[in-house]
Amino acid sequence: MRRKVTKAIFPVAGLGTRFLPATKSVPKEIMTLVDRPLIQYAIDEARAAGIKEFIFVTSRGKGALEDYFDHAPTLEQELRKKGKDQLLSILKDTNMDSGAIAYIRQHKALGLGHAVWCARRLIGNEPFAVILPDDVIAAEKPCLQQMVEAYEQTGGNMVAAMEVPASQASSYGVLDVEEDMGQMVKVRGMVEKPKAEEAPSNLAVIGRYILDPDVLRSLNQMKSGAGGEIQLTDAIAQEIGGDNGVYGYRFRGQRFDCGSKSGFLQATVSFGLAREELREDLLGFIRDAVRMENAAE
Ligand code: UTP
Fold it and tell me: Which pTM value belongs to this model?
């Protein structure tokens, strides 16, 4: 029997420089899409996929994240007194069971691979998921759940993959495909941030992974890769051709790069439009804005 994936790492130790000055005092993961911080979307997705242990790799200045998952007795008491049951139930989603959540500190931002490696002792010898909260995915079935179901068939290592235009390949890890099986591809190589003309395919890796603990052992020996950082893709690439193999999974859903301003704004509009109580108002505003833009041209 394949071991179930019950642990997930959330690397949130990055500096978030693209959102300065906001991220000077607010962790990127606490920034909100409509009314929920990015991290809540990631946690909900993990829960839907059957994750029971949530491991955050944090850094200096991320205290707001830890507070977010704490109980808030005074606030809860106040809401209870006022009979605000609906708000109380919204707050409930933010509470984590004692012992289900752990925080590990990455002392220096040495890259995503290094951040994942920092959590090695909490993972031990079992498969685990990695979720990057700034990749937000709108999907009927949450992305990680789709991947866990596929992983039950394949085992090994699985990365979420998405088609991107060649001009954008240099922002991603890109898959070299050995065999294309439709929803899934078998991977023969991975290149981190290739030049457009050197990208082996248009399949880019985005922030969802299911990994074998062997990847942590590779990270033990890692030297820095592209951009002077310890790259997770380099460690996953070591698994290619081994017993486990690496698969790319074409998830069904729309991914927003909330680590970039443009992606964050697009997600805000899209998640706003998906909310019944906001839709009409927002749509009216967008129509007016487009009309004015067109008239000005
Ligand atoms: P990014 O490449 O988006 O970097 O990291 P960043 O620091 O968050 O943001 P910018 O580029 O300065 O604006 C991708 C993910 O990897 C985590 C980040 O927190 C984010 O979830 N990360 C990155 C770490 O945890 N540690 C690192 O050393 C680097």
Answer: 0.93
